[in-house]
Structure formats: C-alpha cells, structure tokens
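pasting for the record
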Amino acid sequence: MAISVVMPALEMAQETGKLLAWRKKEGEAVKKGEPLLEIETDKAVVEIEAPGDGILASVTAHEGAVIPVGETIAWLVAAGEKAPTIKAIAAPSARATSVTPVTERAASAAARGAADAMAATQTSSQISPKARRLAKELGVDTSCLSGTGPDGTITAEDVQAAADARKSLAAPSAAAQPSESLSQIARLMAERMTQSWTTVPHFFLTRDVDCTALMAAHKRFGPAVEKSNGVKLTITDLLIAAIARAIAKHPVMNSSWTGTSIRRNPEINISLAMAVKDGVVGAVIHKADSAKLGDISTQRRDLAERARANRLRPTDISGGTFTISNLGMYQVGAFVAIITPPQAATLAVGTIADRVVPVNGRPAIRPMMTMTLSSDHRILDGARAAEFLTTLSEALQKPDGWLGE
C-alpha cells in the first residue's frame, strides 16, 4: 500500500514549510527512518525521515517550493505499484517570495494587485490567519491583493510584499540603498520574538551565584564523562542537569500558557538556544531531569553538530518546556532573554568570572556567575520565580547532592 509523504507540521502555528532538498532521487528505494528530505521552518533547517519502506515516486514538489502543511508531495510505493495521482506543486520560480529579492517581490505584488479585477471581492476565508494579523499590523488593505497561496489564498508573504511596495513608492531613493534579504528562519524568528515581547508580560529576576563548587565538580566529573561517553563535559551540561532537577521541585516552571489557561507539561524538556548561520534555534534535551550527566553531554554535542550542519530532525527542536540561553562563552557578563512562547520562562546565563565578594565578612575572590530569569507573569508571580532561582542557586553551590544521582 502506497505511503504518502507530506509536508509535516513541526509546531502549532506553522502554515507552510520550504523544501530545501530531496535526500533521495525519484525511483530510489527508501527504508523507514532514512533521511528523505530537508525542509526549512521558522525554527531551523530540519531533516525529515522516511515514514516507511518503499520506492520514492510521484515527486511533485521541487526544491525551493513553499508548501502548505499536510500537503502530499510524493509517495512511497512497492515495486510495481502505481502511485496515486496528486496535484503538482509549483516550482520555486512560480512563488516569487522564495526566490526573488524584496524589491522584485514588491513589484510583482503591486502588479498583481492592480491587474486582478476580482481582488476586491476577496473574503476573509481567502486570507490565512497569519496574513490577516500581519495586514493589521502593517496597515495593508488586503482587498487589493491577489493571493499566491493555494486556491488564491493571500499569504503573509503577499502582505509583506505589498507593504514593501508601498514603502518603495513612498521613498524611491530607498531602493538604491544596500539591503539584506532575510532567510525564512531569520524573518520568522524576528516575527516570533516581536510577538513574544509585545504580547507576553515579561518580568525579570537576577541572581549572582558562587560557582566555586560547580567548577570543582566540572573538573572532577569531566574525565569520567569523557572516558565513558567520548565527549567533553561543559558547564552548560551541568547547568542543564541542575535546571531540570530544580524545575522538578517547582512544577509551575514547566508550564505553558494556552491562551486561556495554564497547562502543566508532563516532561521536563530543556531547550538550549544554539547559534546557527541564519539565527538561533532551540535544540531540545528531552526528559533532562532523569538523564545522566554523560547522556546530557552526548545529546548536547550531537544537537550542536546537527545544527551547524543543517541536519536537525523534527524531534530535535520540538517539545521544549523551558529554555536556557548561555552566552558565557562570549564573555557576556549578564543579559536578558525573551521568552519562547508558550513556555513559562527562559534563563539567561552569563560568563563565570572572578569577582571580589564578601565571604564571612571579609573580601574574597570567587568565580561568580549572573543568572537572569525571564518569566511570563500570566503563569508565574515574583515569589514563585524567586523560589525556583533559590533552589537552582543552592543546587549549583552544592552539586554533589544531585551529580551522584
């Protein structure tokens, strides 16, 4: 029986995905779990595995095409089996937003809007929810637009192109200025962070931690982890383990905002912010509260390698319930991070550096680290967030209590 290959949905708000490459050629045999294609979402470039065994057939999506979630783009069939007929998906050149510069995209959108006499009769059902929100933010009249999406649906790209066209007409000299077009990841990441900052009621708590014991634990446990797992232990690995165990004692930190209520997540999955070419991705360590230190270290290394090589899988970036952003390796002392919705909080970690601090009433030099917790006030209040920071601070100053678990 033929198995359909569809554009997957990796998150709740995802409407489309961009096909970057097929890892198999049409007519090739494919095994279940083998890399089949690469897609680009607003989070990352993700490697999609084959959903079953078969021969790749009836490929209708070309590299560069932007495809609605859930649409069939190929089939996996048995030898001699005929694939079901599916609608061909336009090549990338037919979708201006995936291959043309902003100025060409804007001109194309303007021309379409002027030429299409039926555009004035567009109804709200022909506009994607994301496009409707963006049109409201940018003040774009969608009645004069012709959509490039399925069945003429107006997409967010159409709205953005119209806004760009209006801006270029208002300031023609701006077209001569150098500009940099954003990748889909960078652009949608900017949209998501803007939405978070403007809709989530953030509040921030800061805590300085003496890392003397943590540094000693890193030195003591590092050789054993490297010997057994073949990977170097990092301070980030210790932080992930400590944070996950602190969250287990404060379950509200592992909650999500649903829009009308608070949902407690059953698993503690730590999302680690990683820098990649086009922005930042959140790579997820699943069930981090029960994972051994060596396992966390191995997962973190593997995720980092796949992120750098644009080989992340859907499970690598999904299911995060709490985010940690560590800029200590860049010698950043302290910073504030934006929450990743619908998570309750994000922890920003600065570098560990020697400071003069009071110890037993006398000045002493200690390796200190600053942590800043960004919290969603719809889920957390100051007292609960502070209690979590206290538990985490104590765990970092007395790591032997949980490192032996």
